[in-house]
Design brief:
The protein has 189 residues and is an alpha+beta fold. It contains 5 helices and 7 strands; from the N terminus they run βααββββββααα. The chain has one domain: 2-Layer Sandwich (Alpha-D-Glucose-1,6-Bisphosphate, Chain A, domain 4). A 7-stranded antiparallel sheet has the order 1-7-6-5-4-3-2. The longest helix is centred in the last third of the chain and has 32 residues. The radius of gyration is 17 Å and the shape is globular.
Length: 189
């Protein structure tokens, strides 16, 4: 499965780079994350609860950052396994300065999914993946705003973790939107 897109952050290139390298922020941004910690140079270990339709389970795995060109780009490799199956992926992240306090993040990658997780169907997986990415960006936007505000006020930043129930509700809403879109487009044919 190919993943690609972009997102505009309200922050400098360095602020966005630092945000992405903060394990506390990344764990808060990814729904279902139970643990994320640095275990070696540019290597992270993570444990996540994942729900895709009827398939639910815990995944554990590693995330490795390579090909760093600070603060503009890096490659991320993910390898996760659990009872519901496996996920392997590699992707590139590019941060581009878009003017004062604006940074465009572009991403491209390939993800392989297997096991019960792959059996739920490509459309469902695509919708859930897009929903996770969208929610992660919303949480990262809020974390960046909190970090900038905390720095200006000379205080410690306090990050809000994505709740699994909010995540599930948003995924359900996105799935319904997709079904309605397909139903509406088939009536137009």
């Amino acid at each position: 499965m190919k993943v690609e897109g972009e997102h505009l952050f309200s922050g400098t290139q360095q602020q966005v780079w630092d945000l992405f390298r903060d394990t506390e922020v990344m764990a808060a941004a990814l729904p279902g994350t139970k643990k994320m910690e640095l275990i070696g140079e540019n290597t992270y270990e993570a444990v996540m609860n994942v729900r895709v339709g009827p398939v639910v389970g815990e995944f554990s795995g590693q995330l490795v950052i390579s090909n760093e060109d600070h603060p503009t780009s890096y490659t991320m490799t993910v390898d996760g396994r659990g009872k519901p199956g496996f996920l392997k992926g590699v992707g590139d992240v590019i941060l581009t300065n878009q003017g004062e306090n604006q940074t465009l993040m572009g991403y491209t990658g390939e993800v392989q999914i297997g096991g019960k997780l792959a059996a739920v169907g490509q459309r469902l997986i695509d919708t859930v993946a897009k929903s996770i990415i969208s929610q992660a960006f919303e949480t990262l936007d809020n974390a960046l705003a909190e970090r900038v505000s905390a720095e200006a006020e000379g205080r410690e930043a306090a990050y809000r973790k994505s709740s699994e129930s909010d995540y599930a509700a948003t995924v359900a809403k996105d799935l319904i939107k997709n079904v309605l879109k397909r139903t509406g487009s088939s009536e137009d044919s």
